[in-house]
Each structure stands twice: as C-alpha cells, then as structure tokens.
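Anyone opening a protein record will find just a pair of labelled lines. A complete record is shown below as an example.
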Amino acid sequence: MPFPYTLLLHRTIYLFCVLLPFVMAQPLGWLAPVFTAIVSYTFFGLDAISDQLEDPFGHDDNDLPTDALVRTVEREILDSLGHTELPPALVPIDHVLN
C-alpha cells in the first residue's frame, strides 16, 4: 500500500479513538473508557496485522519462505530431467524456514 494511504489510515484510527470517548460519554457514562479501550485495542491490532501482511516477501519470521519454495521447485525439475547432483534442500533454522 502506498505510504500516503497508510499514513491516512493511521491518523484516521488515532483521531477516531481519541474522539470516541466524547461521543460515547452520554449513552454509556462511566463505561465509555472501557468501551473505548476495547474498540481501540481492536483497531490498533488490525492496523498492526495489516502492517505485517503488507509485505509478505522478506526474511522476517512470519514472511513467506520463498527461497525454500524456489529450491523445492528447482530440485523437482532437476530430478525430473534426470540430474543426479541436486542442490541441498533448505532446512529450518530455529524452526523458521527462510
């Protein structure tokens, strides 16, 4: 997502969460801060998840293991062509397959 859209989304969430207690004060009374905390936690959590899902290709722990996928395809193609010397399969390091 282009940076200006991300910035607009962040600022809109912050503005919404700052203004929400004032809007909910009349109908909820003293429960407005609790309701606001729950809604804010949800919105900021979704924002953090969207930041992580925005770029799935890389070398972070939760990124797609594209190197391992390409290596597997390479090994299978070379094997089907009859090559005997295959590149080694990539193995997980600390339970993470890069």
About this structure: The first helix runs from residue 3 to 28.
